[in-house]
Amino acid sequence: MKKLTIIDGGMGRELERIGAPFSQTMWSAQALLETPGYVRQAHQNFIDAGAQVIIANSSACVPFYLGQECYQAKGESLAREAAIIAQSVVQHEKVKHRNKVLAAGALSPPYGNDDPDLFDAESALGIYHALFAAQNRYVDLWFAEEIASIAELTLVQSVLQHAQQPCYYILSLSNETTPELQLRSGESAIDAIDFIVQHGGEGILFESETTDVISQAITRAAERIKRADIELGGYINFSTTTDSALTAQNTSTPSSELSPQSYLVLAQHWYQLGATLFGGCCGIRPEHIQALARWRDSQEPLVAVK
User: What is the pTM of this model?
Assistant: First the structure.
């Protein structure tokens, strides 16, 4: 991927916004199952906003969202359909607008990301392999999403080592600001970064609900991988605390909302710290992506962060 790359935002909330069938239980998988046309429209909305990478709507094609019975019956076929839809949207964009957009496959935590203790390596391996096989023919690159523990990272890398496409890893960090950067499991995020460097990942993105933690992670990672050709990124999961970069720019927002302008300030700050990849999940809408794309396309000077 080219430097300063904008990834899409949260598919689940975008599907809900445009009127797709949606529930907290099935999340974004419900639209894929019942009305796949909405999935296509949500992808297109992010592309129209300026995203250069869309991630297949396969994140919820796991037992945590589908339930074990539905996953066994339809999980793999739904993930395949998600990848096919994403690639068809990308190809349509290429033909219609000569706009190069990439479709990424997703490997997500089989049992959710909120509690790493739910992770079961034995059953997760089979799920990862199934999701990989379902999407691999149709995607241009891979994202291993919301990796909350070393066990998850080790397992998902063992699957992605068979990929011919570039592989990117999204580390899910603790929301607490601590001297030692931690994964959601409490394990060392530095150990996770070192593991990815050793095993040849193309990029590392940091996901947290606390934007100061993402800033800390990008800073530490940039110092750690000076000699490695690995891209870094911020992958925001809504903001529940005020970031020092926002405070410096007087654009801090209530914890229930992160405005597009506030996200732009954060992205510019992270860019200064060494990040080149920007996207997000829950709460990141096409409006946020559009703000980043306008900055990218205008090549305006970066916001000075004191």
Answer: 0.91
